[in-house]
Amino acid sequence: MKSKQVIIECPNDFSFSVNLEYLRNQEDALYITDKNSIKKILVIEGDKLFIRIWEVKKGQLSLEIKAIDLENINLHVEKVTNYVRDWFDLDTNVTHFYHMARKDKFLKDSITKFYGLRIIGIPDLFETFVWAVLGQQINLVFASKLKDRFIKKYGERTVYNGEEYWNFPSPKEIASEDVDELFKIGMSRRKCEYIKEVAMAVVNRKITKNMLKSFSDIESAVNKLIEIKGIGPWTAHYVLLRCVRYSDAFPINDVGLHNAIKLAGNLEEKPPIDKIRKIAAPWKGYEAYATFYLWRLIY
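and the corresponding structure tokens:
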């Protein structure tokens, strides 16, 4: 069998259109969006698969899977379905978050405006690391340009049905790359070194997604991550928020978060860290979702 269509059940408080709009607004060579769907090439255990996702009706997504270089697509249907569920964070219960946020001065506007938004994840750990390192201390637009250059220099290109798709570079290739070559993309030399360190840590299994999921508390996961050169608390929390799904991940030093809190609270200036801690006290256990909604408010 070369193709398969799967129906994915979604929570009632999930909005495909809101999440699709979020993805459409992000500059990324790794997927293609149109008015009603999103398309991507996945590589599962070395096999290339084309996927297309669209909404059938409220609460149901249709997932089309087509094999590019594989005869029996059934080998990977479950893995592809799980990838999509992870990507759109469909298995997280946000009922209590919404209940809290509707009464919160700093969250109520973003909840109203973007109701149904999920934390659009980055299921691949190495990709999340790279995006986090690239985004350190620079604006989102420039970080997106660097990511695009990185993907198109080291990633794999596939042309399918006349459209160009890219897959994210493998950590193995980057682990063996020379820092001088990475530097040509336009990153600082320090960031090049950090990305190479991360690639080696992933290749050598010094850090894995399952390992990070296994910790009983976020502090342990953060402490494990900051053992890697170039990974500080902000980057650690970002990785745990976007990839590993810690609901209490909270990159409290993020400049974008500070700007969003200022905007949401109609404050005269960005609040200091101590004040942010007080503002965020009601968000306990849902800091990741609060952060993502606030980011969406300004991006």
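(Above: one complete record from the training split.) The mean pLDDT is 94.
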